[in-house]
Specification:
By secondary structure, this protein is mainly α. The protein is built from 7 helices and no strands.
């Protein structure tokens, strides 16, 4: 029975990492769409969102089945609890990629008259997502802590975008909708970083058994 249980846990880990790879792919596509204003890429992100939704439900059901059948304790219980929460964060990350795609779809139809360079924010957000998943794979507390620290950097960039867009709207009110879409893209990137931070915090909980939400790093 114990051997079968641990095989199920290993299978669950592979499935959550597969979902993580899918979420990373959606984020990469969304970022490419930001750079190119490519409505085709944006449409693909929106059309395939159901794939992640379905996998998220399947993983949650598998977690609940394992809990009911095996009643795990200690580190095994923490692992399943962490997977349930990481599963939800990955689905929300994919949702934010869809939100970015919708913003890009709008921008692709409009004449671009104002542009914000998202490259630094994009780089940091992608790095946080990758590192949070790497921390989970390798059970690396130090890497998870680094992700949490980086979240402040993304928050600052989002604040800078808000300041710039606010000034641009004041100076160019006729471009209000266009500028608000740029602001929303920044906000969605910031939310992806938040969810990556949540994943990192769950990794710390899984390894150390300590809940670190709301703590300063």
């Amino acid at each position: 029975m114990a051997k079968h249980f641990h095989k199920e846990l290993e299978k669950l880990k592979k499935r959550i990492l597969s979902l993580g790879a899918m979420a990373e792919d959606r984020v990469r596509m969304a970022i490419k769409a930001i750079d190119t204003r490519d409505a085709v890429i944006a449409d693909k992100i929106i059309r395939t969102d159901y794939e992640i939704d379905e996998m998220e439900v399947e993983i949650e059901e598998e977690c609940l089945k394992i809990l009911a059948l095996h009643q795990p304790v200690a580190v095994d219980l923490r692992f399943i609890t962490a997977v349930i929460k990481i599963n939800n964060d990955l689905e929300r990350i994919a949702d934010e990629a869809v939100n970015i795609a919708r913003g890009v779809s709008y921008l692709s139809r409009e004449k671009q008259t104002f542009y914000f360079d998202f490259s630094v924010m994009v780089e940091k957000t992608q790095a946080m997502l990758k590192s949070s998943l790497d921390a989970f794979v390798n059970m690396d507390t130090d890497l998870a802590v680094k992700v949490c620290i980086m979240d402040d950097e993304v928050d600052k960039i989002n604040g800078e975008v808000h300041r710039l867009v606010k000034g641009a709207i004041r100076d160019n009110p006729e471009q209000g909708e266009h500028l608000i879409n740029l602001l929303l893209i920044s906000r969605h990137l910031e939310r992806i970083a938040d969810h990556a931070t949540n994943i990192a915090e769950e990794v710390i909980y899984l390894i150390e058994g300590e809940i670190v939400r709301h703590e300063d790093f």
